[in-house]
Amino acid sequence: MTKILLRDKLDDCLTRWHAAGFDVVGPVRKNNISQYATVKKAGELDLGIILPDRTLKDLFFPQTEPMFSYRISKQKIDTEEYLPPGRQRIIFGARACDASAMAIDDPLFGWDYQDTYWFKRRNETVIVTIACTAADEFCMCTSLKLAPDSTQGSDILLRPLGDNRGWQVEELTDRGREAFSRIEALLEESPAQTAALADVPIKFDLDLCREWLQNPENFESHFWKEISMRCIGCGTCTFLCPTCHCFDFQDEGDTYTGIRRKNWDSCSFALFTMHTSGRNPRSTQSARWRQRIMHKFNYFPGKFNLNSCSGCGRCTRECPVDMGIIETLQEITKLSQ
Amino acid sequence: MSIQEQYRKKAAELLSSGEVKLVIGYGSGSTPDRRRALFARTADDAALFHVDAACDANLSGYLVNEGLLSDKKKIGIFLKPEGIRSVNILAAESQLDPDQIVILGFTEENGTVSGLQGTQASDFTSLMTALKENRTTSEKEQALVDKIEAMTPQERFAFWQAEFEKCIKCYACRQVCPMCYCKRCIVDNNQPQWVHTSSHTLGNFEWNLVRAFHLSGRCVECGGCDRACPVNIPLRLINRRMANEVLDAFDHFSGMNQNQEPVLASFKKDDPETFIL
Amino acid sequence: MSKPFEPKIVAFVCTYCTYAGADLAGTSRLKYPPNIRMVRLPCTGRISPMFILKALQKGADGVLVSGCHPGDCHFTHGNYHARRRWTVFRALLNFTGIPLERIRFSWISAAEGVKFAELISSLTEDIRKLGPFEQYKAMIHETEAPVSL
């Protein structure tokens, strides 16, 4: 006997969570795009989406974020700091890859300096993940040694029932338990069986890839030029990546008054590494693509013992020129066999 | 022989005879319905080319990749009529020498592809004239344009605001566009910084206006930006509207030939001026 | 009580004609509303659509672009180029919902002080009737406020 949450109780759950001061966020399809958005009623949620177009990172690390405003006068400099507003949130219906991505970025945002913006939102958010029973041809969590029911980054894991009437509840953290205590009365004890998880075939050998990437001889390999020839240098893969976390500061305003913002930046952009002198250490697109792959699968694991990829596959799914991590790592797997 | 076989053979001949150093075409993609750019350097590579209805990208943007044409050697490229128009514009704007481009032209209608006669951009002049005369819009697209045109300014503003709000400034629309070849885009300039680089709605709105303006009279409506946009902003509607404007006001159809004067770098003394007080 | 709405209008003008026309209006003691902020440029050919966007970004309720009559350009054809550019940019603004009443274009020569004063008066009244450009101002406001995430 395990605890289950029935689909038709969702509206009541939302009412209770709202009453307890939580905002509820979940996958929503609106205006020709799907993303995690705040909802008032359960009916607004689209839990059938295999994976929303936009990632969960948007909710913790928005594409543009004001940090502080400044006003410079002859006598002094006034600043006003902006912090996230501090709303308790429940993300209902995250996917395991998206939730894992948050756990991947936690050490990054906290290793030398605690990123206030990231951790304030992380600490105020409960992530309720629903395990996947369907996948598409770009899903690759298993290749990253994750799974459709990975628990990393999640506070609650819901496993869909075989009859699609609801979900089996697995409480993973205290924060998750606290949020679910608010709906304790709506949960049931049931022996119902869970549905089969999505079958996500393994697409490349991660260990072989890491080995190949670590070999300094391969840094200047002609492979990088060949594989990235059609890359156009846009930011689609990085901006739709749940783990990509690079940002840039931008002062909006003038010398005397304005706002400093933290904006997403992408290693695919030619300007990313451009020096003021005009020199660009990564002057070709192949060097930029190599950096992206090296960072995710060599440097990041070297530092944090984690791959900076959770296998959501959005980079390949959305790439305007049909590139992406899958093809590159498949080719590297072949090269190292 | 199917068109695909013919063109594979043609590409292989071009490569093995040494007439071209490279052929840019379409290869298999990561799923059966996807095609991706394929760069063939040998006759063997040419056997991997596809020519079918799934070949939708306008590959001409790759021609202006830094240094690709600087050795004066020729390059073969698979192009649809819009791609040929792009080559004409790039030639007219002195970005490439059209003599270096060997075109393997094809066109697609209702899912069937057929070959186009000619190998030089200048061989397709009559095709361009026909395209100008027979400009068509899909019913669905026309319905949407009509809907937008019928709105009040406030409603139109709200419509585009909701669309541009989605923009994440990944610049896929710019990067995929053959006409966006600037070494440094105006939005990446910060001295002076005309438009916001931040991806808030205002910054997105400004960016999309600037992009559309810079493509006015230059866009060939290949639809690349629209397909590339990861957040599905209907960019083709704006481009279409601007193309209509230059056609109606100045009888300008972009990319007719390689000597065409850019519409915003030329004028007629009797250009219409209905709105100037 | 809140202050009555006073439109802010930015005028980008050519120094050889409209600016001189404004001078003439001044020396002729012609009255026109003080809602206009003039930016003097060497030629209408120098006026980039970026200027118009910048004016809106900084909170303008209206923009005027004005230069020499066709045929009178100090540089022979700067205004012909400008005319094409405006035709296209105006269509774009219209299609994206920026009311054309707010973005105006005119030819005013150095001799047309009266036309200048009358145009500024009617433009100011028109925009006063339209009210502040609330839709654009809402976007500007969003850039100045912290995110609500």
Write the layout of secondary structure elements.
The complex is a heterotrimer of chains A (337), B (277) and C (149).
Chain A: E1 2-6, H1 10-19, E2 22-30, E3 33-39, E4 64-72, E5 77-81, E6 88-94, H2 96-110, H3 116-123, E7 125-130, E8 156-160, E9 166-171, H4 174-181, E10 188-190, H5 206-214, H6 223-227, H7 236-239, E11 247-253, E12 257-264, H8 285-304, H9 314-318, H10 325-335
Parallel strand pairs in A: 2-6, 6-7, 7-8
Antiparallel strand pairs in A: 1-9, 1-10, 2-3, 4-5, 4-12, 8-9, 11-12
Chain B: H1 3-16, E1 20-28, E2 35-40, H2 43-46, E3 74-79, H3 81-92, E4 101-109, E5 112-115, H4 125-133, H5 139-150, H6 153-165, H7 172-176, H8 201-215, H9 224-228, H10 235-250
Parallel strand pairs in B: 1-3, 3-4
Antiparallel strand pairs in B: 1-2, 4-5
Helix pairs in contact in B: 6-8
Chain C: E1 9-14, H1 18-27, E2 36-41, H2 49-57, E3 62-67, H3 78-95, E4 103-107, H4 113-130, H5 134-144
Parallel strand pairs in C: 1-2, 1-3, 3-4
Helix pairs in contact in C: 1-4
Describe the structure.
Chain C: One of its GO terms (molecular function) is iron-sulfur cluster binding. Chain C: Pfam families: FlpD. Chain C: This is Heterodisulfide reductase subunit MvhD. Chain C: InterPro entries: MvhD/FlpD (IPR003813). Chain C: Residues 9-131 form the F420-non-reducing hydrogenase iron-sulfur subunit D domain. The complex is a heterotrimer of chains A (337), B (277) and C (149). Chain A has two domains: 2-190, no CATH class; 206-335, no CATH class. Chain A contains ten helices and twelve strands. In chain A, the strands form two sheets. In chain A, strands 3-2-6-7-8-9-1-10 form an eight-stranded mixed β-sheet. Chain A has a four-stranded antiparallel β-sheet with strand order 5-4-12-11, with no helix packed on it. In chain A, a hairpin with a 5-residue loop joins strand 8 and strand 9 (166-171). The mean pLDDT of chain A is 96. Chain A is globular. By secondary structure, chain A is of the alpha+beta class. Chain B is α/β, with parallel strands linked by helices and 277 residues long. Chain B has two domains: 3-133, no CATH class; 139-252, no CATH class. Chain B has a five-stranded mixed β-sheet. Chain B is globular. In chain B, 44% of the residues are buried. Chain C has a single domain (9-144), classed as Rossmann fold (3-Layer(aba) Sandwich). A four-stranded parallel β-sheet of chain C has the order 2-1-3-4, sandwiched between helices. In chain C, helix 1 crosses helix 4. The longest helix of chain C has 18 residues, at 78-95. The model of chain C has no long low-confidence stretch (mean pLDDT 94). Chains in contact: A-B, A-C, B-C. Chain B binds chain C through residues 148-149, 151, 153-161, 186, 194-196, 198, 200-203, 205-206, 208-210, 212-213, 216-217, 238, 241-242, 245-246, 249-250, 263-269, 271-273, 275-277, and chain C through 48-50, 53-54, 57, 70-71, 77, 80-81, 83-100, 104-107, 119, 135, 139-140, 142-143.
